[in-house]
């Protein structure tokens, strides 16, 4: 019997390389891994979230957790498995002009701060982190947006949103002083090339983020693996088998770190060892070990007006993987 064709769109990370190299797969399925970026193009293009969540182009894809919550609330034909291929702390992703007199998170109030979109997962996380960790009311910040949202939504009363002109770029606006700060999952070249005039908000973001980890107990989720509902119907046992494939890919990635010269970084192996000594598997998949992170993020989505009702964590995932 011929294998069923199945497309999986992913970004290219060390932990997803086994899919692109064909080292992992799903039994009975002819899996085609596509390298699709979001804001930075991959071999198979970009705008992965929109191509999945708006157009249903792939059978499964790595997508924004934030936009996926909106899709679930609107009962769109997607479900997910508790695999989280991208994670970021927000605190090292906040960049400011050195002449903008922004010395602490409190100084962001009343300022013009750039975001990729309002509903980008990092944007939601950063707003929540500023409020939870530093007492900054995110509603007092004037948000300047670079792109159209994956899903339209009605902003809460009093929320200040502004779309940049066509052709403008947030990094260049920050360098020119037209915005005061920027929160972005991929620091633009204009930011990285102007490190004398642009710096991270926190002088020691790693220390801030380790404190965050100790306080809250997790490395924040950015993306989740979503599947089209018709793919789940077409391929029995798909969700559980795909979860197992990702677990295998994660293990292959860990093994490659056994070689101290596997990474481009001269001291990469030592950095890997120090991270492991923190006492937690920061990249753990499964529902149980990520429940606290997911529940808090669901609350932030409601608080920021992106969703309108509480979503039980279990409702996000296929029933076959809710025991993970």
What does this structure look like?
The chain has 324 residues and is an alpha/beta fold. It folds into 2 domains: 185 residues, D-Maltodextrin-Binding Protein, domain 2 (3-Layer(aba) Sandwich); 126 residues, Periplasmic binding protein-like II (D-Maltodextrin-Binding Protein, domain 2), CATH 3.40.190.10. 32% of the residues lie in helices and 16% in strands. The chain contains 11 helices and 11 strands. A 6-stranded mixed beta sheet has the order 8-7-6-9-5-10. Strands 2-1-3-11-4 form a 5-stranded mixed beta sheet. The longest helix has 19 residues. The radius of gyration is 20 Å and the shape is globular. The protein starts with a strand and ends in a 21-residue tail after the last helix.
Task: Provide the residue-averaged pLDDT.
Answer: 95
The CATH superfamily title of the largest domain: Periplasmic binding protein-like II
CATH class of the largest domain: Alpha Beta
- First-residue to last-residue Cα separation: 31 Å
Give the DSSP E fraction (strand runs of 2 or more residues): 15-25%
Structural class: alpha/beta
Order of helices and strands: EHEHEHEEEHEEHEHEHEHHHH
Domains (count): 2
Q: What is the name of the CATH topology of the largest domain? A: D-Maltodextrin-Binding Protein, domain 2
- Principal-axis shape equals globular
Widest β-sheet, arrangement of strands: 8-7-6-9-5-10
What is the number of helical segments per DSSP (H or I, 4+ residues)?
Answer: 11
Oligomeric organization of the protein chains: single chain
Number of strands: 11
Helix content: 25-40%
Describe the sheet with the most strands.
6 strands, mixed
Task: Give the low-pLDDT segments.
Answer: none
């Amino acid at each position: 019997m011929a294998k069923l064709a199945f497309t999986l769109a992913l970004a290219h990370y060390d932990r997803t390389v086994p899919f692109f190299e064909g080292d992992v797969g799903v039994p009975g399925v002819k899996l085609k891994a596509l390298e699709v970026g979001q804001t930075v193009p991959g071999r198979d293009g970009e705008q992965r979230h929109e191509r999945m969540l708006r157009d249903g182009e792939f059978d499964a894809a790595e997508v924004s957790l934030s936009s996926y919550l909106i899709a679930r609330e609107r009962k769109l034909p997607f479900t997910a498995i508790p695999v989280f291929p991208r994670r970021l702390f927000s605190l090292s992703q906040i960049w400011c002009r050195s002449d903008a007199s922004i010395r602490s998170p409190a100084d962001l109030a009343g300022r013009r701060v750039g975001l990729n979109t309002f509903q980008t997962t990092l944007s939601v996380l950063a707003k929540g982190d500023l409020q939870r960790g530093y007492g900054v009311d995110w509603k007092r910040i004037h948000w300047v947006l670079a792109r159209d949202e994956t899903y339209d939504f009605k902003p809460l009363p009093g929320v200040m949103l502004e779309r940049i002109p066509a052709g403008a770029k947030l990094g260049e606006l920050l360098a020119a002083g037209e915005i005061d700060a920027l929160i972005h999952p991929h620091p633009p070249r204009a930011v990285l090339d102007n490190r004398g005039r642009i710096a991270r908000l926190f002088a020691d973001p790693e220390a801030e983020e380790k404190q965050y980890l100790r306080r809250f107990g997790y490395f924040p989720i950015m993306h989740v693996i979503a599947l089209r509902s018709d793919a789940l119907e077409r391929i029995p046992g798909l969700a559980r088998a795909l979860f197992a494939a990702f677990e295998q890919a994660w293990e292959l990635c860990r093994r490659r770190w056994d070689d101290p010269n596997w990474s481009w970084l001269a001291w990469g192996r030592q950095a890997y060892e120090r991270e492991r000594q923190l006492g937690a598997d920061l990249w753990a998949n499964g529902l149980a070990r990520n429940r606290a992170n997911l529940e808090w993020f669901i609350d932030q989505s409601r608080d920021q007006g992106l969703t309108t009702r509480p979503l039980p964590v279990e409702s996000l995932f296929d029933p076959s993987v809710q025991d993970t």
